[in-house]
Structure formats: C-alpha cells, structure tokens
Amino acid sequence: MAALLLLPFGSFGQQPAAQLRALPVPAGRFLQASVRVGEPLDYELRYEHAPDLEVVFPDSLAAFEPFEYTGKTYFPTRTRNGRSLDRAIYHLRTFRLDAVQRLALPVLVLQGAADTLRLAPPPSSVRLRRTAPPQTTTGLPELRQNLALVPVEPIFNYPYWLAGSLAVLLLLAGGAALFRRRLTRRYQAYKRRKNHGYFLAQFARHVERFELSRSATNVERAVVLWKNYLASLENNELSSFTTREIVTYFENDNDVRKALGATDKVIYGNLQTEDAKEVDRAFQRLRGFAERRYASVGDN
To answer: What is the pLDDT of residues 102-119, one digit of tens each?
Structure first.
C-alpha cells in the first residue's frame, strides 16, 4: 500500500532515464481557466501508481512561483484493481500581471535509502482576467491648467493654543510667587477695611437702640461687639478676657479703663438710673479706641 508523505523538495542528484521512463507521470491542473489578481485559485495534483511505491507530495515550502501558497487539502490514498491514487488540492493566489501563468508541481518517488526520483507533470496554465480596461493613447481627455486658489477652511491649532495656555499659566504662577506677599497684604487690608466698616455700623446701631430704650441689654451687646471686633483685629482671644485682663492687655489705657468701668456698672450693677451721658461717653471712648487700634494695625 502506498504512503503519501509531504516534504519540502531539495536537490536529489541525477535521475536515471530508464527509471523515469518506467514510472507513470503525475497529472496537475488548475480547477479554473481564469482568475483575477488576488482571488483564490485551486491547483489539483494527482498521481496514479503501483501500490508498493512510496510517494512524497509537495508541502508549503515547495516552489509555487508565480503563485503564493495559502493552504492545501489532502485526500487519503485509494487503491483499486492493483492501482493506487494519491490526490491533493493546493489553494493559491497570484498578484502577478502576466496574461498567462503556469505551474507544474513535481512529486517524489522514494526507492530505497539513496535513490529518489522527481517526477513533474506537464505545466498547467491559467489566464489572468483583468478588471481594468486596457489603456490607449487615443481618446484621452485634454488636460486643462487651473491655477485658481481654492479656499481652505482653517484648522484649530491645538499645539499652539496648548503652548500659549501653558505659557500664560507659568506667567501667572510666577507672578503669584513674586507678588504673593504684596497681594496677601492688600487682601488682608481689604478684609480689615470691610470688617471695620461693619463694626462701626453695628456699634452705632446698638448705641442708637440704647438711646431709645436705656436698656442694659443694648449696652452689653455693644461691649460684646467691641470685644469680638478687637479680638479679630488683634488675632487673639480678647473676647474671652475679663475687664481687668482687657485693661491690662491694653497697658491700662485710660479710655478702655473708664469706658469698661462705666459699662460694667450698667451691665452687672443693673443701675438703670446711671447717668446716660456717662454711658454715651463710654461708647465714644470704645469707638475711638477701636479706630485707633485699626489705624495702628493698618500702618504695620
């Protein structure tokens, strides 16, 4: 029984002519008469021989020029009436532009360890079917020169804009680092100015309410407002100090000592008949002292 082997072909030396004449010739043919460039193409290789021959068919490393190998399909050996048939179909394609292209794939017959015969079928041809019409020099359209400029829609230049944005950010960061201290001082001065204006407005409102009601509650609210304002201005815990601690903190300032002494009599002594003019002078001393402290902080 014959065995179908698939090995690459090489150089096997000179083959005796008598042996070649004694063996049958394989048959090879394309399964279609024409093909387009790049289309699949099948090539069938058949070899009918005696059952005791060992036959080798080409594999993917064989020479398929001018075609390109893409695959293969093999069929088992069939033996009938003392004859064996080996058959394989090779799947090819071509990108050559020759009008007619030919191929003849050989088979090898192994006869012992040192004797190999190479048998090639008659070349089979396939015709290239062209899709583009043949070009001729007649009937070509006349070329006309056109030098008019065509408007081109401008394209957004992302790299330049990104580079510009980065440069602006770097300039802003550099400016902020350079002028940060000055900007911080200006911002803090703006905040002090706003807080001072708010304090004066609220303090005047408490004074006005005291003049209308002569209530110790309005005096207490005015003093609490004054303490909170000075605490934020001095950046300390002045709002929790007692009257003695506040007088000591401000180095026994005459206005602070007299003003807080008068307001404490009204708040803690519940003296409703206290001279209103003395309380009014206490309010003026507290407001005047707050304005002096605001001016001294702004000068630093």
So the answer is: 999 999 998 776 678 899
Beta-ladder partners of 28: 45
Percent of the chain as helix, strand, coil, to the nearest 5: 45, 20, 35
What is residue 122's predicted lDDT score, i.e. its pLDDT? 95
Q: How far is CA 51 from CA 2, 21, 269, in A?
A: 5, 18, 136
Q: Is residue 128 helix, strand or coil?
A: strand
CB 233 within 8 A of CB 293: yes
- Cα-only R_g, the chain: 56
CA distances from residue 53 to 9, 86, 190 in whole angstroms, order as listed = 18, 11, 109
What is the C-alpha separation between 26 and 24, in angstroms, rounded?
7
Whether the per-residue pLDDT at 185 is higher than 70: the answer is yes
Task: List residues bridging with 116 in a β-sheet.
Answer: 110
Integer Cα distance of 89 and 276 in angstroms: 124
Closest CA to 229 of 266, 206, 200, 189: 200
Count Cβ neighbours within 10 Å for each residue of 175-199 and write b for 16 or more, e otherwise.
eeeeeeeeeeeeeeeeeeeeebeeb
**Could you report the per-residue pLDDT of 55-86, keeping only the tens digit for each?**
999 999 999 999 999 999 999 999 999 899 99
Burial letters 142-157, b for 16+ CB under 10 A, else e = eeeeeeeeeeeeeeee
Distance, in Å, from the CA atom of 62 to the CA atom of 129, rounded to the nearest integer, reads: 26
CB 10 within 8 A of CB 61: no
What is the DSSP code string of 168-194? HHHHHHHHHHHHHHHHHHHHHHHHHHH
